[in-house]
Amino acid sequence: MNVITKKVSLPDGREISIETGKLAKQADGAVMLTMGNTMLLATVCAAKDAVPGTDFMPLQVEYREKYAAAGRFPGGFTKREGKASDEEILTCRLVDRALRPLFPSNYHAEVYVNVTLFSADGVDMPDALAGFAASAALAASDIPFDGPISEVRVARINGEFVINPTFEQLKEADMDLMVGATEENIMMVEGEMKEVSEQDLLEALKAAHEAIKPQCRVQKELMKELGTDVKREYCHEINDDELREDISKQCFQKCYDITKQGLDKHARAAAFEAVREEDKVSYLAAHAELSEDELSEKNALIDRYYHDVERDAMRRCVLDEGIRLDGRQTTDIRPIWCEASPLPGPHGSAIFTRGETQALATCTLGTKLDEKLVDGALERYYMKFLLHYNFPPFSTGEAKAQRGVGRREIGHGHLAWRGLKGQIPADYPYTVRIVSDVLESNGSSSMATTCAGTLALMDAGVPMANPVAGIAMGLIKNPGEDKYAVLSDILGDEDHLGDMDFKTTGTKNGLTATQMDIKCDGLSYEILEKALMQAKAGREHIMGEMMKTISEPRAELKPHVPRIEQIIIPKEFIGAVIGPGGKIIQQMQEDTQTTITIEEVDGVGKVQVSAPNRDAIDAAMAKIKAIVAIPEIGEVYHGTVRSVMPYGCFVEFLPGKDGLLHISEIDWKRLETVEEAGIKEGDPIDVKLIEIDPKTGKFKLSRRVLIEKPADYVERPARQRPERGERRDRGERRQRPERREVRNEAEGATSADVPSALDDMLK
Asked: How confident is the model at residue 317 (pLDDT cuts 50, 70, 90)?
């Protein structure tokens, strides 16, 4: 067994090791990555040949966390891991986006990357290690790959950048970024920030890249030692250089002219398709001797080569004339229109339209019971702010069925969620859900979701700290050419045919989230800085247009929004409010038609009461306040007679607190029985607390003090006790004998002697 281990250190001295040759040896490449007690197994397998007709990179990345890694059982009935969670899918995407651009463009064999968390200590965050593990598995294989890469998490904590922070450290961070890069270039960025500047983001990227470089170098050492620096040969494409050249000559200028016309999405697509079909017809006419199979093969090549011509024409038009596909200049933002509250039913709603991209967002306000439980292998917590993104096929004019939520929808929704979540107050009592339905799409629908989500939140009356806007930036940069163009508010085709998709969200104070994917080599920090500053100007323009629709959160919630009121109670009263088996709190909810939740936070009880109307909330609040109230002498209470006795009755004047209403305190007139006053068990009664026994804590109540005293009432004189006479002098006391002596004397005496013995003791 040829086991090879390589180690690399993080800036703070913590060590990461990668080991191959011991586990999963039948995979094309397998690596066990270890950091402390966190261990991930990454494997990669690739098909030997491509599926005929495949002209893309069929890469599939899977990341899974075993519950056993943290010594936990999965939830649910089956008690086993099922489909991937949202958090696992997000990690898959992070790894996929860093790997995919580095496979050769003509390599089309299916590649499957699996990363599994087998051990975790709850200290180190495994998602920051998944990209490193996946790339190391590729390095240990002979699969063609222009890497290696690695990924790290960089966080700014107390002004210092920390690489791969722990769970606890991350809680104090104002920046949280995942960065994927080769030794030379940054390939992928995603993260969230607390309104930081563009320069801060650049500094974080530089710190992350410096940490990634040694991780890439150690993978290169592994490749040389294994002999996998020479990759397998493949031939997945059949090419015809003469045909490629002919299509370029015939179609380039036509495509260039279409590019300059500034057509809308569908008109432009139809125009490009007409040029392609025309070329196919002319080729068929010139090569009538070809068989049907040969012609089908040539048509497939024409489609591929023509796509490259479209790409080249678009890029040259932008670089040479600064004209984009829709006729805009590089810094122009598409026309924007917005509408707040277009839907009467939701608690908040908004439409945001930018060019041919449109998002309809709704906002729903719920109670604590509506919070989402995230029950992962390493973390278990509740989410109070949810954002869901839907991308139906009709948004792009496609005629196909709408299925379940895909990875793309989860990823785009997560980006918008990150951009908005920091602006909702932490102590906001409502659970908030945004749903964004993309109705039209031609680029940057996740940023349209961010903008529409902001408007919907303000329409719902959510007190946002600051509104958030988002923009997607693009890049055109040909290899070996110094000229480049940064594009503001990119179209879908500019994303597809360009070199960068760089999304940023932010407020007037700074950035809140970002996502960047790079498809070219040699992206300098100068270009990144230009893109960031151009994005800032674009966001400010978009924000100005949004504020014309609604500039601040509505002062009042809409009438059909459930009202929520909070009260803080002492910790020791939590049990009293809940009651045995929840009996009291359930009864209160039934009686008042409210929803009541209670939890212990920071040593106190936080109670939330929700109801459609104020009266119901007030009724529930009165009951809760009565339970937690401390009885005060002199206060008047509305109680209930719990039992009747000959000497009075017991009254529950506060929940769980009974006091004695003595028969003499019922009325000013003398009563022989309680029934004479017409009082019976279950009757409501107003009483005043007049005394609390300092020794026993018992409560003494009075009813008569609340009744007007009769004019002829004569106070009964207090009973006089007879005066005590003078005490006779008993003389000097004799010393008392010991108890044991007395007992012995009594045991030795007969019954007849006992009186005399006692007399002697008392003398």
From this structure: very high
Greatest CA span in the chain, whole angstroms? 151
Burial class (CB in 10 A: 0-12, 13-18, 19+), 315: buried
**Residue type (1 letter), 374:** V
For the record, the structure tokens of 476 come out as 């055109």
Distance CA 502, CA 631 (A): 63
Tokens of 522: 């040699």
What pLDDT digit, counting tens, does each position of 542-596 carry? Answer: 999 999 999 999 999 999 999 999 999 988 889 989 989 999 999 999 999 999 9
Return the CATH superfamily for domain 4-226. Answer: GHMP Kinase, N-terminal domain (3.30.230.70)
How many other C-beta atoms are found inside a 10 Å radius of the C-beta of residue 300?
A: 14
Q: Which residues pair with 757 in a beta bridge?
A: none
Q: CATH homologous superfamily of domain 636-706?
A: Nucleic acid-binding proteins (2.40.50.140)
The yes/no answer on whether domain 241-321 falls in CATH 3.30.1490 is no
pLDDT at 315: 95
Every domain of the chain with CATH number 2.40.50.140 lies at 636-706
As annotated, the residues of the chain forming the CATH 3.30.230.70 domain(s) are 4-226, 336-471+527-547
Spell out the CATH class of 336-471+527-547: alpha beta
* Dihedral angle sign, alpha carbons of residues 360, 364, 370, 372: positive
Q: How far is CA 251 from CA 279, 315, 653, in A?
A: 8, 15, 91
| pTM (two decimals) | 0.84
Cβ atoms < 10 Å from Cβ of 95: 28
351 beta partners: 339, 360
Alpha-helical (H) ranges within 569-712 are 574-578, 583-592, 614-628
Distance CA 621, CA 607 (A): 10
Burial of 4 (0-12, 13-18, 19+ CB in 10 A): middle
Task: Please state, in angstroms and rounded to a whole number, the distance separating the CA atoms of residues 196 and 202.
Answer: 11
Length of the chain equals 763
What's the helix, strand, coil split of the chain in %, to 5? 35, 30, 35
Q: Is the backbone peptide bond immediately before 148 cis, with ω within 30 degrees of 0?
A: yes
Architecture of the domain made up of 563-628: 2-Layer Sandwich (3.30)
